Amino acid sequence: MSSPSFPVSGSGSSGEGTSDHSLLTNRDSADQHPAASITPVTTNFDGNLSSADDTVQKALETLDASVVAKSLFDANTIIKADSDNTPAALTVGEQTIVGRITSGVIAALSATQVRTLLNVADGANAYTLPTAAAGTLGGIKVGTRLSIADGVLSADEQAGGSGSYIIQNVIPAVVSVDTVFTHYVCPIAGTISLAMMSLESAPSASTTYCKVQVMKNGLLETDSIFTSDAAMQITEVTSATNGVYQASGTLDSGRTAVVAGDVIWIRVNQADAGSAGLRVQVKIDWT
Fold this sequence. Notes:
Largest sheet: 6 strands, antiparallel
Number of helices: 2
CATH architecture of the largest domain: Sandwich
CATH topology of the largest domain: Jelly Rolls
Order of helices and strands: HEEEEHEEEEEEEEEEEE
Number of domains: 3
Oligomer: single chain
Structural class: mainly beta
């Protein structure tokens, strides 16, 4: 079965078909399919449309009413509607956010409106971090011999510096035998460089002594920091220097190194009659 023909002429009467659309009257660029432009033929589907068969024409009219004009689609433009069935172009400028605030329509938002939507206070981007001080929380800079990683500030190992500290203990009155002065915990690593004692008055009897032992991490004689565990001593024959009697111990180089946490003990091993005003000093150097 062959397809039916739909003969159309410029006046709407029956005739031969044509591919030249200019023969259709009342057509223009704004309205391609006005109802008055085509007069339906009056015969049936034996080759012609009946006067009642205007379905195609109505469909074309409906399509024309639903299509958004291409001319609305300019560069950087979106289509929006403030009410039903009212499409309109909205050109979006550079650095612009499009949105809709409460009870408003779709529009380019101001900076204040955007901050309101994001719950950001005006001037929030103008905050200046204060400089940290004794009573002020604030920002600091990473200075000399400091480093920072993942937000953690650390002090670098200090090279090239040096110093010393002195452990000092005093018994101002008459010295008692087997007196343990005290202990001292080393805060950092270092080396014991000097141990000395002094008395305001020396033992008075012949062959008498005042002996002091310095030990590391224990109270046994074998914990001594001195060579052969020999304690420091002042005897009745020791001469005074600048008004006091002095003596020092011979350090054992294998026992003088200390680390943080090591404990230094000072103990009186012997104190014969006349020993008074004892002072003991131990010097520790660090680098």
